[in-house]
Amino acid sequence: MNKEEFINALKELDIDLNDKILNDLEIYYEMLVDYNKHTNLTRITEKNDVYLKHFYDSLTIIKAVKLRNESLLDVGTGAGFPGLVLKIVFPKLKVTLVDSLNKRIVFLNKIIEKLNLKDVVAIHERAEDFAKCNRESFDIVTSRAVANLSVLSELCIPFVKVCGYFIPMKAD
After folding, report:
1. What is the pTM of this model?
2. Cis peptide before 158 (omega within 30 of 0)
3. Backbone phi, then psi, for 83, in 5-degree steps?
4. Is residue 93 within 8 Å of residue 58, measured between CB atoms?
5. Residue 138 is inside which H or E element, if any?
6. pLDDT of residue 150
7. What is the rounded distance in angstroms from the CA atom of residue 110 to the CA atom of residue 121?
8. CB atoms within 10 A of CB 50
9. What is the Cα Rg of the chain in Å?
10. Which of 32, 90, 101, 122 could share a disulfide with 97, CB 3.0–4.6 Å?
């Protein structure tokens, strides 16, 4: 998916990207590929594939829920998919990124700092431990490629506020 195809595909989802967002996504991509040379974050590094399989895929969450200024938790965020992509495209979101591997959190903090993102925090902690003090704390909870759906549901649903949403981004 080249840049023009990416922009057009997002228009079909009613997402319009301005130059700043496009530039931030490009910086994110470049930092991802560079960091991935010494720290394995993703096996997908070809630009068109990253835009399709990581960026576009992350944004398809809006098929399930409208995003405004809600609080969003991304469990097992990895390299920031979908949470950090959602924060870049929907800057009013309050985003918490949780992952059990500190090398991922270090990378995410570099992106957050480079893009000067506000209302986003990357936390190095296992979801089970993070849940102890954060039950029913988020409007939207999502996760992608972490565990099978039954395990993922047990991990994530306790974080969801009453009348909130758990949106697993999984095929199973």
Report:
1. 0.95
2. no
3. -55, -50
4. no
5. strand 138-144
6. 84
7. 12
8. 21
9. 15
10. 122
Q: Which amino acid makes up residue 98?
A: V
Instruction: Select from 31, 19, 23, 22 the least CA-distant residue to 111.
Output: 31
Phi, psi of 5 (to 5 degrees): -65, -40
At position 62, the amino acid (one-letter code) is I
Helical segments of 15-148, H only:
19-36, 47-49, 57-59, 83-89, 102-114, 127-130
- Between CA 49 and CA 164, with CA 87 as vertex, the angle to 5 degrees is 110
Residue 20 tokens, joined: 């700043």
d(CA 41, CA 33): 9
Q: What is the pLDDT of residues 20-31, one digit of tens each?
A: 999 999 999 999
Q: What is the per-residue pLDDT across 66-100, written as a single tens digit (0 to 9) for each?
A: 998 999 999 999 999 999 999 999 999 999 999 99
| Separation between Cα atoms, residue 24 and residue 76, nearest integer Å | 22
Residue 108 structure tokens: 């995410």
**If you count them, how many residues does the chain have?**
172
Element of type H or E holding 155 = helix 149-156
